[in-house]
Design goal:
heterodimer; A: 2 strands; about 0% strand; B: about 325 residues; six-stranded parallel beta sheet; six-stranded mixed beta sheet
């Protein structure tokens, strides 16, 4: 009996520590190169890694909720593109910063709501629905932008959300990074401490049982996708600030980066498990991989191969972990 | 007294001259960031950069060229990431072909602020923080194409302009030059399509070409494409509908080996050819000059030539059409 408890404790520890271990491993790997080490562990470089993680991290906040509930959303990249174009267009037309932010977030939330409604009402697979939405939203983005990029007015305050001041120092971090960190805390609390959060896990673990327990599954699903959509809209605003323009061709394939981050962080694609902390670390791991590969001067295809291997390893590790706790 | 002063001056001159040319045993690392890495145009620039590196090595200057493009060839955010990561890497200098004249402004400003000089190549940037702009006179290239098109069509007919992408300053200049030349020399030539974009790959360009020819295939007399993949794709699309061989006058840009072959076969009537090897070469050598404290030109024109079947066998033209890539890129 004592041995069983001990094994559970170990597995639990591994679960929590797992993603951290991965991050340390990746950092350690790159620090082996004497060429890169002096540049990797500088404040300026960490600042860059953090900034480059923001968009994927904010997207991963929404995606974690969706994946834990057993769904998936492939339209993230397109939503980021559309909201960046929408934000830029509003700024150019002279709307104030706050109005632009609100409308852009609402647009993301609206698209999420449509996703959720179609998935919940017609009982369609989220993969299919969001796959279709991916094309629709991308097309709307290109139409809205007139098939070109929309440049922000040069003095727009939104340009500073992701701007890098004092590039060689870690601080000050741009507001975008603080917003991402703050939101990670908030969403983590929502998932773990609220009833809504409990419902997410319930629906992900066993949707039928959740329904039988009285959870209004369709309503919850709509709420989950809508909330995630708001977050995707925010990611679009961050992208807008980073490029200082709205770009309908940006973020192609972003959904895969986000899903990879969530999976590396320990979430299971079949739902029921996942954590915000894990997803954030997953996002950081990918950014460190990219940053390190860049600095080592590796070819781009090396990077792609490595990221692919990391994803498979992470999922394999996750499956192994799960099978052990089930003993 | 006079001779002493003269001697003193001469000594001072020698010492200072020696200071300037002394090899300080430093290793320079220059990051060269193209828009993409697969088209032959970029490979030629790479070859030019490597050529510069080898020549400098022979002179005893340790300069390392790191060649890295964005993972996806038209992704602005990824090119920004490459610039940022090299800024962190504290390379000695960055040579950049910006995917977008606006999106890369902030990353370049950050790099300069961190003490890393930036040379912009091939395509312009809406900034004044760079050391030098090494590029083709793209407006002139477009003009040469436009004037030749007018000549081929004898001043009248229907013309299609297939653009590349918004924000790509180099190709936008070519498009402007082409339209400028047409409106100046032949107001009777009608532009039946000038608002379609080919996109970054041969595949997207092929689809755009097919769609255009689907609509205008029977009306068009001449087509101008502004870069390598779109030229190759449009030529193929023209052949597909039986309008190759000069039935529709095709003028393109850049000397991709497929395009040169197409010109030999008569499917392409003229190519506006840049000198990408020179661009890569001059970017690196100019960066070194700047790093060693010399003053450099703010705008360096690497030249553009209109190559036609008539002049393509001339020696200088041949070098432009078949740059010795294998010699420098293993």
């Amino acid at each position: 009996m004592a041995a069983l408890t001990k094994r559970f404790k170990l597995a639990g520890l591994l679960n929590a520590v797992g993603p951290f271990f991965g991050l340390l491993l990746v950092l350690g790997l790159f620090s082996l190169s004497s060429e890169v080490r002096p540049y990797l562990f500088t404040g300026g470089n960490f600042k860059i890694i953090l900034i480059q993680t923001v968009i994927v991290a904010i997207g991963a906040l929404g995606m974690t909720m969706i994946i834990v509930s057993g769904g998936i959303d492939l339209s993230v990249g397109s939503v980021v593109a559309l909201t960046s174009v929408l934000g830029a267009t509003l700024l150019v037309k002279g709307y104030s910063t706050s109005v632009t932010i609100v409308l852009t977030l609402l647009a993301g939330g609206l698209i999420g709501m449509v996703n959720g409604l179609v998935i919940a009402s017609f009982r369609m697979m989220p993969f299919i629905v969001t796959l279709g939405m991916m094309g629709v939203v991308r097309g709307v983005a290109k139409w809205l932008a007139g098939n070109q990029t929309v440049n922000n007015p040069p003095d727009a305050p939104l340009n500073n959300l992701m701007a890098r001041v004092s590039p060689t120092e870690l601080f000050p971090l741009p507001p975008g990074v603080w917003i991402a960190i703050g939101l990670a805390v908030v969403v983590s609390l929502i998932i773990r401490q609220t009833i809504f959060g409990r419902y997410i896990f319930a629906i992900g673990s066993n949707e039928a049982t959740a329904r039988l327990c009285g959870v209004r599954v369709p309503l919850q699903k709509v709420m989950i996708y809508s909330l995630a959509g708001l977050l995707f809209g925010l990611a679009g605003l961050m992208q807008l600030s980073r490029l200082t323009q709205g770009d309908p061709t940006v973020a192609v394939g972003l959904e895969l980066d986000i899903i990879a981050a969530v999976v590396i962080g320990g979430a299971s694609l079949s739902g029921g498990t996942g954590s915000i902390l894990g997803s954030m670390i997953g996002a950081l791991i990918m950014a460190v991989l990219r940053n390190g590969s860049n600095q080592m001067g590796w070819q781009n295809f090396t990077q792609e191969i490595i990221i692919g291997i990391v994803i498979v390893l992470a999922v394999g590790l996750d499956i192994w972990r799960q099978s052990r706790t089930k003993d | 007294m006079k001779s002493l002063v003269r001697f003193g001056l001469a000594l001072a001159l020698i010492v200072f001259a020696g200071c300037g040319k002394k090899s300080d045993g430093k290793t320079y690392t220059v990051a060269v960031i193209p828009k993409g890495t697969t088209h032959e145009f970029w490979k030629s620039i790479h070859a030019g950069a490597v050529k510069a590196q080898q020549e400098l090595a022979a002179k005893g200057v340790q300069l390392e060229v790191i060649w890295k493009g964005p993972l996806r060839e038209d992704d602005r955010d990824q090119q920004i990431q490459v610039v940022e990561n090299f800024t962190s890497r504290k390379v000695s200098g960055i040579v950049l072909a910006p995917l977008d004249s606006q999106a890369l402004v902030n990353p370049v400003a950050s790099a300069v602020q961190a003490g890393i000089p930036v040379i912009v190549m091939d395509s312009g940037l809406k900034s004044d923080k760079y050391v030098s702009f090494v590029a083709t006179d793209n407006f002139k290239g477009g003009q040469l194409a436009g004037e030749y098109m007018a000549k081929l069509l004898n001043g009248k007919g229907n013309v299609i302009l297939l653009r590349y992408a918004v924000g790509s300053a180099s190709t936008e200049e070519r498009e402007k030059g082409f339209l400028d030349a047409l409106s100046r020399t032949s107001p009777e030539i009608k532009l039946i399509s000038g608002d379609q974009y080919a996109g970054a790959t041969r595949e997207t360009a092929y689809q755009a070409s097919q769609n255009l020819l689907n609509r205008f295939g029977n009306e068009v007399n001449g087509v101008f494409c502004v870069n390598e993949p779109s030229t190759i794709a449009m030529t193929k699309a023209l052949r597909d509908i039986g309008k190759g061989g000069g039935k529709v006058k095709m003028i393109g840009f850049d000397a991709g080996s497929q395009s040169v072959l197409d010109m030999k076969n008569g499917d392409v009537q003229a190519l506006a050819v840049q000198n990408p090897m020179l661009m890569g070469y001059l970017s690196v050598t100019t960066m070194l000059k700047h790093l060693q404290g010399e003053k450099v030109e703010n705008r360096i024109d690497t030249g553009v030539v209109l190559v036609t079947p008539e002049n393509m066998e001339q020696t200088e033209i041949k070098d432009l059409l078949h740059p010795p890539l294998d010699k420098y890129l293993k």
